Amino acid sequence: MNPYIKLLELLLVDREKEEKLIFACNTFGINKSDVEFSVTTFIPNNYNIKYTGIRLALGAFLNEFIEISRLREYKKQGKKLLYGAMPARPTLYSCFCDATASFPDYMLILCLNLLFANNTLLDISEKYGLNKHCAINKLRYSIIKSEKIPVPDVMWNWGFGCDESPKIDEVLEINTVRGGIPRGEENIAFMAKTLEEGFYEVKKILKVNTSFDKADIFSVYGMKIKWLQDIVLNSNPQIISGNELQLFWVPMHCAFILGFEHIGRAIDTMLQEAKIAKDRKQGYIGKNALKIGGYYMPYTIPGLNEIFKRYNIATTFSLANTIEVSKAEKNENIFYKTARQWYSVSDTQNFNIKIERMAKQIEKYSPDAVIVGFFDFDKWVGATQRVLKDSLSKKTNIPHFYFQGDFFDLRKNDMSKLEMQIETIASILKEKTETKKCLEENSNE
Amino acid sequence: MNTFFTNKIAYYGSFVPVPYIKAVGIEAYNLFQEGHTSLLTGCNSILQGIIRKAELTSLSEYSLIIIQQTTVQEQAAADLLEHFNLPVLRVVVPNNNNQYAFEYYLKSLEGMVAKLSNFNDIDLFILKKEFAMKKSLPDRKVKIAVIGDILTNSIYENLSQYGEILAMTDEGLFSQIVIENSENYLLDFAKQKFINPPCVFAYSMQTRLEWFKKINADVYIYTFDKNSEIYELEYSYIRAKLGKPIFRYSKDKLDSIFYEVKK
Fold first, then answer.
1. What is the DSSP letter of B247?
2. What is the ipTM of this complex?
3. Mind giving me the DSSP string for A86-150?
4. Which of A169, A295, A400, A429 has its Cα between 20 and 30 A from that of A210?
């Protein structure tokens, strides 16, 4: 059987998509042997494929991988293309009914990392002279400049978090609708107004129908992912890894071209499987394994999870996914709701508020340690992480460890160095646990 | 409360109307000119430098640190200083060129003036004098536009030896706002800064390019930290589009740059 079919079957994607998969692989620099490696080694070694939910989730990414390669075809067919960029909430993008909405750069880098562990596409941007930029921005530049994906009819780039992202659009001469919010202060009303203005500007450009009905799916999905997280993190032995859990978080911050068609089925299946596995005490790692949380759990570097596992450390939750649910106001419109959702995530808040919220999250799940870092390249997320590490560590009395590395660009991570660091962390935590055990035994005596 | 000679206020950014600081009788220090470039260049490894005791100690001399909030790194800088319990005041500038962003900025400025008034009453005579003051620029032949996120005194002085500096800000081209006999200095300052000419936010390269063309300098110099992605990209973009001499600042190369320009 050829590896393309094997991959489709492994990830429960329709076999009839073989040709489309081959086309996608050819477009994005994935050759036959990469696919073979992915099916026989990479995916089985890095994911719990005994769970249909995990296979379906990875399948949802494979479907997106195929869809991104079809954007040129869609454009030729006369479909309107709307792109978004991280960070944004995908809710509003899904409301443009007759348009194809995608965050192609972010989704593609996830697909390349999660399914193939291959970032060679980034080489193109480096040929254009973009060296030290964020890999997401570099990838957007690469794939549009090399015409692997078309220029969209409009790019709705909120620009609330990353300053650099809208600049890439300018260089690419993309028709962009941008936003702008007060930095350093939460102002839901201001953001709602900006979003509403942007939304109708995009609508004017696309000339398509819009409907806010789809927006509710996000709330339902949001409840499911929190539910899944609670089941996984309260299981001992832990059912699936934090990396796998993160796969299900992606729709909360990135638009899927196919919407919830596949990832929705994946989470429903995973929820059922997780409940059964918890009752049967089936885990991906031994009982009472050490647990680490992450600022962002580095699921985009799949190999790390296996290294942690080797040292009996379970990866768990991402602090940045902390959601503080504030009370919805009566009759609030979708823009207000989206703005409220935006500020409900710790990462969009001021440093001091972020620390408070993350500390609460750490208290809730009480990991043995927290890892921070992998964003040395980034001025938005990365700028304050070293200080955050020290402050959170002091506040929670839980050790925090900083990793130098690149969350998205696998080429920049020296896995052997990272393994050495993980080994050190494991020995520190082991010693700490043993000391604690001794102290407890002594006090009992 | 008489706080003359005891308080020092530091500020960063041209969205901060410095005459108001002076009008409450307090010396205003530009963070960049005081050598705090590491705080605001946005380079992660350097930004962490502010946790160095020495720098925090020197910053603790200030009764107030006013930082404009137009970019991620400015927010990060304010966040960290606030985290270390330093008295930070944010002048918030939503990066939108629309009316409600302007109103937000104006409100933020009003908050700043209210805070300053806690130190001393605003001396209208000083305010008027400061706003009416024009910086004298040497009469030289070469006209230079300087832009970037590490504009220090020494860079200014070094470049001044070669020509007249037409513009020197990171988010607008005309750093010198002169207001004579206004009924409402704050509103006029905000309008001149934000609306006319429209301010150029860090990501608006196209607008910046148009302004560069209008200003018609002989040479354009970018000064930015080696890790500044934002300006690196802009530099390449403007360089490709402007069709005028444009260089990255390097003290050692100034002689050869201006030799070329004069030719």
1. E
2. 0.89
3. SS--GGGGGGBTTEEEE-HHHHHHHHIIIII---TTHHHHHHTT--SS-HHHHHHHHHHHTTSSP
4. A169
Tell the residue number behind the tokens 């000064």, with chain if given.
Answer: B223
Q: Of the candidates B79, B92, B234, which has its C-beta nearest A351's C-beta?
A: B79
Contacts of A187 in chain B (CB under 8 A): 104
Kindly report the CA angle at A413 between A286 and A378, in degrees rounded to 5? 110
Considering only CB atoms, A387 lies closest to which of B80, B90, B229, namely B80
Report whether A308 contacts A422 (CB < 8 A): yes
Dmax (CA) for chain B in angstroms is 59
Whole-number Å distance between alpha carbons of B110 and B114: 6
- Percent of chain B with pLDDT strictly greater than 90: 29
DSSP string, B171-189: S-S-------S-S-HHHHH
B51 contacts on A by Cβ (under 8 Å): 386-387, 390
Which residues is A96 bridged to in the sheet? A210
A269-288 pLDDT per residue, tens: 999 999 999 999 999 999 99
Beta carbons within 8 Å of A367's beta carbon, 6+ residues apart = A291, A292, A293, A316, A317, A398
Q: Which amino acid is at A9?
A: E
Whole-number Å distance between alpha carbons of B152 and B168: 10
Sheet order of strands, A80-84 included: A99-102, A80-84, A154-157, A176-178
Rounded Cα gap, residues A353 and A114, in angstroms = 32
CA distance A430 to A416: 21
Asked, as a colleague might, if the bond just before A251 is cis with ω within 30 of 0, I would say no
